[in-house]
Automatic annotation (TrEMBL):
<feature type="signal peptide">
    <location>
        <begin position="1"/>
        <end position="29"/>
    </location>
</feature>
<feature type="region of interest" description="Disordered">
    <location>
        <begin position="143"/>
        <end position="182"/>
    </location>
</feature>
<keyword id="KW-0732">Signal</keyword>
<feature type="coiled-coil region">
    <location>
        <begin position="198"/>
        <end position="225"/>
    </location>
</feature>
<keyword id="KW-0175">Coiled coil</keyword>
<protein>
    <recommendedName>
        <fullName>Secreted protein</fullName>
    </recommendedName>
</protein>
<feature type="compositionally biased region" description="Low complexity">
    <location>
        <begin position="147"/>
        <end position="178"/>
    </location>
</feature>
């Protein structure tokens, strides 16, 4: 047995400071008062993502699994770094649930799939570790990246004291339709299922359907959130990670009793129609 070195947790916090412009009114010859300046939005600091360590929670690593385990531990570090970078560059985006929906939630999904692959790698050569799912969820430290509204609600009084009617407000554009997530079918791409593996395969096929349903619900509930890459980063990417892990479990279940099917990874990626 060998011990895998514990990777150093990468935490890259970002902060965005709001700049307030101070205006000084100067009396003109006509003695007209200067127009009031609207209050600037106050954007809080992004904060830092903190995740539970994984390497020190693992049992002794079989030598045959050490390389794969280390590769996935490094991937966990990379995922945290990417999430912190996104946190720092998206301050002020979305609503109050943006960080959870667009960053922390997808990060937990990615970590869960990666941690599952670690457990599977160990389980091929020794007892598979259990109870690691609790290590997937991360939290946000100080700050939070939530944009606060201006103190006066953003309203600016008319310069003429209110004698003119307020400017017509532009009509609010309705959010675009959410669309539907479409994923490759898996059951019809599998070889003959050994009877001893059928229950486990069926359970994971049902899980694939559940994952698609959950992703479609999230897609419908998050219309208008985030930037142009929101759907890919917050929904399709995490869904692909979940599907990849589930499809891998299907292949492993079959491989315990017959030749393990290959080439199924291409079935993990979904699209929005």
């Amino acid at each position: 047995m060998v011990r895998v070195r514990a990777p150093r947790l990468l935490i890259a916090g970002g902060a965005a400071a709001a700049l307030l412009a101070a205006g000084i009114g100067i009396a003109a010859a006509s003695d007209k008062p200067a127009a009031n300046k609207p209050a600037a939005a106050n954007v809080q600091a992004a904060g830092t993502i903190s995740c539970p360590t994984v390497a020190d929670k693992l049992p002794a690593i079989p030598a045959a699994a050490a390389a794969e385990v280390q590769q996935n531990l490094d991937l966990l570090d990379k995922q945290i770094a990417e999430a912190n970078n996104r946190l720092a560059t998206s301050v002020g985006q979305g609503g109050p649930a943006f960080v959870q929906n667009a960053i922390l939630g997808p990060l937990a999904d990615k970590r869960r799939a990666t941690i599952d692959r670690i457990a599977i790698a160990i389980g091929r050569h020794a007892a598979r570790p259990t109870g690691l799912d609790s290590l997937a969820t991360c939290t946000l430290g100080a700050g939070g990246g939530v944009q606060q509204p201006p103190a006066n609600g953003g309203a600016q009084p008319p310069a003429n004291g209110g004698n003119q009617p307020p400017a017509t407000q532009p009509a609010t554009q309705p959010p675009a339709a959410a669309g539907t997530i479409s994923c490759p079918t898996v059951a019809d791409k599998l070889p003959a299922i050994p009877a001893a593996a059928k229950a486990e395969v069926d359970r994971n096929l049902e899980l694939l359907n559940k994952q698609i349903a959950e992703a479609n619900t999230r897609l419908a509930n998050s219309v208008g959130q985030g930037g142009p890459a929101f759907v890919q980063n917050a929904i399709l990417g995490p869904l692909a990670d979940k599907r990849r892990s589930t499809i891998d479990r299907i292949a492993i279940a079959i491989g315990r009793h017959t030749a393990k099917p290959t080439g199924l990874d291409s079935l993990a990626t979904c699209t929005v129609a």
